[in-house]
Amino acid sequence: MTGDYPSRSNAALFDVYLRLRPSYTPGAERFLDVEATQEGDYPTHITIKPPANDHRKRAIEKFEFTKVFQEDAAQLDLFQSTGVPEIIEGVVGKDRGQGRDGLLATLGVTGSGKSHTILGSKTQRGLTQLSLDVLFQSIQSRIVDTSKDDDVLQSLTVSDVSEAQMMTASNFLELTYGDGTASTRASRATSRAATPMMDMSFVSGAGANMRKHMPRLSTLPQYPEVQDIQVDCDTSSQYAVVISMYEVYNDRIFDLLISSSSKSAIQKRRGLLFKSTELSPDRKVVAGLRKIICSSLEEALLVLETGLVERRVAGTGSNAVSSRSHGFFCVEVRKRPERSISCTWKSSSFTIVDLAGSERARSAKTTGSTLAEAGKINESLMYLGQCMQLQSDNSDLSKPSIVPFRQCKLTELLFSNSFPSSSASGNTALSLRNHPHLTNGSSDRRNPQKSVMVVTADPLGDFNATSQILRYSALAREVTVPRVPSVTSSIIAGAHGASVPGKASGRSSPTASSEDLEAALAEIGRLRAELDIVSVRYDEEVRRRREAEASWSAATERCEMIENEVRDEMWGEFEARLEMETRRWRAAAEEESERNDQRMDQKLDILARGIEVQVYEDPAATEDDKVRELEDENERLKRKVEELSREKGLRSPSKKMRVLKTRKWEGSGIGFEGSP
Ligand SMILES: Nc1ncnc2c1ncn2[C@@H]1O[C@H](COP(=O)(O)OP(=O)(O)OP(=O)(O)O)[C@@H](O)[C@H]1O
Known about the structure:
It comes from Myriangium duriaei CBS 260.36. Keywords: ATP-binding, Coiled coil, Hydrolase, Microtubule, Motor protein, Nucleotide-binding. One of its GO terms (molecular function) is microtubule binding. This protein is an alpha+beta fold and 676 residues long. It is 43% helix and 16% strand. It has helices spanning 75-81, 84-92, 114-119, 127-139, 150-159, 169-177, 183-188, 201-204, 263-267, 297-310, 368-392, 409-415, 420-424, 463-473, 487-498, 511-614, 623-649, 653-667; strands at residues 2-5, 15-20, 32-34, 45-48, 60-64, 67-69, 102-108, 165-168, 237-249, 252-255, 274-276, 284-286, 290-294, 313-314, 322-323, 326-337, 346-354, 402-403, 430-431, 450-457, 476-480. The strands form 5 sheets. Strands 2, 6, 7, 8, 9, 10, 13, 16, 17 and 20 form a 10-stranded mixed beta sheet that branches. The chain has a 5-stranded antiparallel beta sheet with strand order 1-21-5-4-3, with helices on one face. A two-stranded antiparallel sheet has the order 11-12. α11 packs parallel to α14 (463-473). The longest helix has 104 residues, at 511-614. The structure holds adenosine-5'-triphosphate (ATP). Residues 21-22, 108, 110-116, 121, 319, 322-323, 356-357, 456 line the site of adenosine-5'-triphosphate.
């Protein structure tokens, strides 16, 4: 026997339990056996051997789990022995303690009993209903009454870090199943403002106007009962229970508490983001969920049933009613000190995950969109398997394994908050060195999440699909090859047995050579066994390589897709900015030219005004001025005449004579002005 995979339980993110389902397939060969243990203990090891018609592998594989639950295990056995009550106690946070998040998930081939384990059946409750029952009966007396106190709803809404729409269960049920008369009132509850509470007749079914499609509490299974199971709570605190539900379908997150019953709503079904928010910068949350405050088990069960109806189911060849999405049911337990209600609410969550079944698309006879769904489911489960297997291979703690959890939404949701320090720094992969179990985290860190994985298997089901899941989920694995005595060694053994002392024929016995032969045959047998082991490992390496190649090509495709998206986005942004800049530039140019025109007009004005100054004419002369001017002129001319006269008198006698003659003539009455 070769112990080639060491136990990883110390470093594991999950405690891994195996549950076998009863199987009634007639004529099917059982390929899985449980190793016996002492009376009263749960077995921890199983072996699987390939069916007789599988000629490729003769090796037997042995797997270790935290516990193995056999076919006769009841729901209550599972509930108690997987430590779910302890998880609930951690979430509740007894003795003023900080709560501790919990995660319960199921993994298995389609039809192996995951939903049966987590959600139960028509007659039996599943681990989810049992958990809710234990939670409410443990804290019921300390739950705040949101129907009487509007401030409570307000304070719960304000303390929520995930941009959620909070409402009370009665408002939610009225909104979902009511006849619309109260919908206005109820829809107001989705806002962040406090709203008036409604009476509880809705839950009790007393309000007649509703409730055609509402699940009836009386039809829900009551068995098994858990009255005698209670967990300790913090007696100095008051509590509120807030429920949300979502599914991961085709790698997108959808709210299950927003009804898509109308066609338009289906078309508009909006994916949600898993991101850090303003109030939660170091921790990723599913943002924008609808969250329902439940103050009783009945309310919580009705909300759960409503979400389950919403969850997408589609029939496939593998299972008539099969989960086609990974379903997440989150119970947030919020608490604050009873005496100082001004304190903010502290919150811890219990998340229950019903994973979609892995299946071989070929064997499931799926086509079209269902085939695409199956592809996405298998891809996400392959990534989950890789994350889990990396832990299983992490034997050497000095070499930290990197958990590549950001490859798909499922692993991101399951793992990113398991390592608070890593997610805070925005790493795209997690190192096991940062695992809270392995480091001394600082005191202000959240308590490490407690996680339980229940692997379900049908021992008479599909060998290949089941063995693949067991390989990556088990805590440890060993491979062995049964020694089948060969014909030759039997003959030799016979011959050797015949050559006993005393029966010698007298001739020298061929003991030495037969011993050599026997040793050689033993060696051949050993080598053959080793060869078988190597060939099993080789097959497995080939499978892992194929998976790695598939994951690589999927990652490459995703990268290309993201690159194209980023390119398109950037191109769009660039064009929009260019357009905006062009418009801005044009507007600026127009403004500039307008300004220039104005400036030119102003210049022309100034110029025109300047010309007017140059052509300025004196105002028209008045009469007096003209008279004065004429008198001046007259005066000037008289002086000139006198001057000329004097000049003439001083010249020749003939000239004098002429003057005298002129005076004579003037004496006749015709003379110059002023003359006698
Ligand atoms: N432990 C069990 N005891 C009795 N019946 C079981 C058990 N496990 C599974 N079954 C039955 O087997 C059928 C298939 O189981 P279930 O729907 O839980 O499978 P599943 O793994 O959730 O499948 P899928 O992944 O397709 O949703 C159901 O009818 C269920 O009641």
